[in-house]
Amino acid sequence: MTSQHPSDQNDNLRHKKDAFHLPEGVIYLDGNSLGVLPKHVPGRVADVVTEQWGTSLIRAWNSHSWFDLPLRTGDRIGRLIGAPNGTVVACDSTSVNVFKVLSAALSLRPERKVILSDSGNFPTDLYVAAGLKDLLAKGHELKIVAPEEVEAMLDDQVAAMMLTQVDYRTGRVHDMNDLTRKAHDAGAIAIWDLAHSAGAIEVDLLGAKADFAIGCGYKYLNGGPGAPAFLYVSPDHLDKVSSPLTGWMGHEAPFAFDLDYRPVSGIACMTVGTPAILALSSLHAALDIFEDVDMADIRAKSISLSELFIAEVEARCPQLTLASPRSPSERGSQVSFRFGEGYAVMQALIARGVIGDFRAPDVMRFGFAPLYLSHQDIVDAVAILADILDTGSWDRPEFKTRAKVT
């Protein structure tokens, strides 16, 4: 499998693959779950550990600008999601940030009681929303509808519409511009989860007039396992909201150690506790990869890769059923296929060096990170998949034993 696909010859992103640490013999189709390690990140993190922490010690908060790292990293992410400087901060986890922005959104519409979401939303967002409404105990209702029913359910009772832009199972994409506009027409606040969008597809939060957004740093942004998440607050709301988690990093003068809480102005008001410097340093370094890349080029290659994948699978693996939208304009940077024994097939694939993942009950997910995947990788991966299906080599006990992480 050393040939080159014709589409790779004109790929202006092909040189980026050399910037990543890819194990020999592995075709990685799981960047939608955990990104690949950029080669320069270990050295950068080692410097933070041995030189900054090791030598500067506590002085590094000032001498190496650790204190401002959440804001500096946020601005780098902002460039990839259409957010102006000073509106994004990298901190905490996606779940914690959902709690913060949803609470802030509800405070902007105190007379309304409905949180509208859909059944394609990532479950943690729904869990957090349910927990928050119970905590507030003000009569809020979490209304979960089918994705195609969201627009019809936007009325004068909805306080906040909270959606994941790219469905984690199928890759289906919500129209952010259209739904945000319709939410605003109904007087509601629009919150977008970009966990499967940031770094993979073009996003324009400012242009769409989104009110809030959240997302994670460890998928297409390649920040590493458990990398800090991020959150966005529209410039229209920055002077109106603060975090419901009033920790000292969100205080206007954290080192005055006053006993009363006064939120700092700007996006820093959404920070809470001491930032995780080692994890933030990894994410900040990983974002170097995007500095000379246009998101339009990433999106174009993503579509090319996923279209090739679907064509190859449907030609060679008739046992599988496409679970993703067929139109690339309606998909993110992943493709899912259904198969009754999808878990076992995925484990057999992984054993052969093709790494994707599985989501219950029968969805095999394949993510396409254009910075480190080639068209030849796609052809080679499908050849292995076809062989596994044709020979039935997936039908073995060791491939059917469920691990904790699928």
Report on the structure:
By secondary structure, the chain is α/β, with parallel strands linked by helices. The protein folds into two domains: 6-39 and 294-400, Aspartate Aminotransferase, domain 1 (Alpha-Beta Complex), CATH 3.90.1150; 68-274, Type I PLP-dependent aspartate aminotransferase-like (Major domain) (Aspartate Aminotransferase, domain 2, 3-Layer(aba) Sandwich), CATH 3.40.640.10. It is 34% helix and 13% strand. The protein has a seven-stranded mixed β-sheet with strand order 2-8-7-6-5-3-4, with helices on both faces. A four-stranded antiparallel β-sheet has the order 9-10-13-12, covered by helices on one side. A two-stranded parallel sheet has the order 1-11. Helix 3 runs parallel beside helix 8 (277-286), helix 4 crosses helix 5 and helix 9 (295-316) packs parallel to helix 11. The chain is globular and about 70 Å long. The two termini are 28 Å apart. Pathway: Amino-acid degradation; L-kynurenine degradation; L-alanine and anthranilate from L-kynurenine: step 1/1; Cofactor biosynthesis; NAD(+) biosynthesis; quinolinate from L-kynurenine: step 2/3. It is an enzyme of class 3 (hydrolase). The modification N6-(pyridoxal phosphate)lysine is found at residue 219. Catalyzes the cleavage of L-kynurenine (L-Kyn) and L-3-hydroxykynurenine (L-3OHKyn) into anthranilic acid (AA) and 3-hydroxyanthranilic acid (3-OHAA), respectively.
